[in-house]
Amino acid sequence: MTLSFAVLLGFLHRAIAQMNDPRQASNATRYSLKDTVLGAFSVFFMQCESFLEHQRQMYSRCGKDNAQRLFDLTLIPTTPQIRNILDAIAGQELFEVFTWIYQGLHQRGYLKPYQCLGGYLLVTLDGTQYFSSQKINCPHCSSRTHKNGQKVFLLGTRTHVEEHRHED
Questions:
Q1: pLDDT confidence of 158, banded at 50, 70, 90?
Q2: Model's pTM, two decimal places?
Q3: Residue 120 above 70 pLDDT?
Q4: C-alpha–C-alpha distance, residues 71 and 52, integer Å
């Protein structure tokens, strides 16, 4: 089995199936947890914050959209709906996806060229801030108080890069 996009998406589907939906069961629940998580993933994967809106417009014009075919979405939730649902889900719910991907890369030997120092992987960590506001915040936000007393709420992420040494 190759680590294709379909396999990686399958890992995400498997993690979603193990999640508990934080919402109360209701006939008014329109979007599945699967559509919500995959909708959020699609925006990050496509690196386009308007991706889902574009897909909704495409569906209204053509009766089809790429989100259905690429990400297996049944219904496309709006950004506020995604936020409302995902805010109640701990990030740890998806940690296993990273483990599965790592195991797949390791088992197939893709990480071997990146090993050094007795077989260890050298990982560089970096961080980036992707949201700040003086008013909008959530329990997961960090905050910074400026010298003038103004408080700013921040969301950020840590990224990593596997380092590879090149030998001549």
A1: low
A2: 0.68
A3: yes
A4: 11
Question: Quick count: other Cβ atoms within 10 Å of Cβ 38?
Answer: 24
Which is higher by pLDDT, 35 or 164? 35
The secondary structure element, H or E, covering residue 82 is helix 79-86
For residues 42 and 71, the answer to whether their CB atoms sit within 8 Å is: yes
DSSP string, 34-83: HHHHHHHHHHHHHT-TTHHHHHHHHHHHHS--HHHHHH--SS---HHHHH
For 20, other C-beta atoms within 10 Å of its C-beta total 9
How does the average pLDDT of the chain come out, rounded? 82
Q: Where are the beta strands (DSSP E) in the chain?
A: 115-116, 120-121, 123-133, 142-145, 151-162
Place of tokens 């209701």: 26
Residue bearing tokens 């329109």: 30
CB 121 within 8 A of CB 162: yes
Measure Cα distances from 143 to 37, 146, 149, 152, 166 in Å. 26, 10, 12, 6, 40
Give the per-residue pLDDT at 148: 92
